[in-house]
Design goal:
Elements: H1 4-11, H2 15-23, H3 42-56, H4 61-68, H5 72-103, H6 113-125, H7 129-145, H8 147-162, H9 164-175, H10 184-201, H11 214-226, H12 228-241
Helix pairs in contact: 6-7, 7-8, 9-10, 10-12, 11-12
Length: 245
């Protein structure tokens, strides 16, 4: 005969958990002895281990109760379903683990070496710590969600920063973060960016605005969320560069 405390220790659960299982009808509650204590048997311990195993596999308690009342054949089929679901979950967890390990393996959160070098060099070009942190987060997000498009987007930005005139526009964009959205300086900056953009890309699709790619939109939406001034600047750019905006 086993006390509830020992039963909990054997099964690796808390006494509170056993009482919850009693309340939900999953584990039969034994009668009390002459001293007023409930005494459990080995059968209770085996049943409790089964319940704990199913619960840890993600089976809802209501479903576990149903299995307790099912025929042996139904139980076997249900357990096969649980096993398949658990196998799929393990596969997803392993993939998540691999991504986590990649994030910690590179110079900057698992990003390609050229991207890590780019980020490390931004402060030396005059960019703020805020801008560097934002770019780091954005490239991690882009490479994680759209790896097939990330390299081309990164190459486009790298080429822009290699041009002194375009780099100055990026720096001015960075410094516009704290401006009032109504500041005339934003309109002036937008005109300079529009002129440079048309000079660089011509009349065709514009990366970051009307190009058929999820990456520019992902980046711009994140940038706009950082600052009302940046959001206003994006609106000014779209009004001139994207027809129908």
């Amino acid at each position: 005969m086993i006390t509830i405390g020992r039963l909990a220790a054997y099964a690796g659960v808390s006494i509170k958990t056993i009482r919850v299982y009693h309340a939900k009808g999953l584990l039969p509650e034994p009668d009390r002895d002459a001293s007023g204590y409930r005494r459990y048997t080995a059968a209770h311990a085996i049943d409790l281990l089964k319940i704990r195993t199913l619960a840890e596999a993600g089976v809802p308690l209501a479903r576990i109760k149903q299995l307790g009342d099912a025929t042996p054949e139904s139980v076997r089929e249900a357990l096969h379903d649980v096993d398949r679901e658990l196998t799929a979950r393990i596969k997803r967890l392993r993939e998540t683990q691999r991504r986590l390990r990649r994030l910690g393996s590179g110079p900057v959160h698992g990003l390609p070496p050229e991207v890590a070098r780019h980020l490390e060099g931004l402060p030396g070009l005059g960019f703020s710590a805020r801008w560097v942190a934002m770019e780091t987060d954005l490239w991690i997000l882009v490479y994680a969600t759209h790896p097939e498009l990330a390299a081309e987007s990164f190459r486009d930005q790298s080429e822009a920063l290699a041009d002194p005139g375009l780099r100055q526009l990026y720096l001015d964009y960075d410094r516009a973060h704290d401006l009032d959205p109504a500041d005339p300086a934003l309109a002036a900056l937008a005109e300079r960016i529009i002129t440079a953009t048309r000079r660089r890309y011509g009349p065709g699709p514009l990366p970051g605005l009307d190009a058929p790619s999820a990456v520019p939109a992902l980046i711009q939406n994140a940038v706009n969320a950082e600052s009302p001034a940046w959001r206003r600047l994006d609106g000014l750019l779209r009004a001139q560069l994207v027809p129908g905006t």
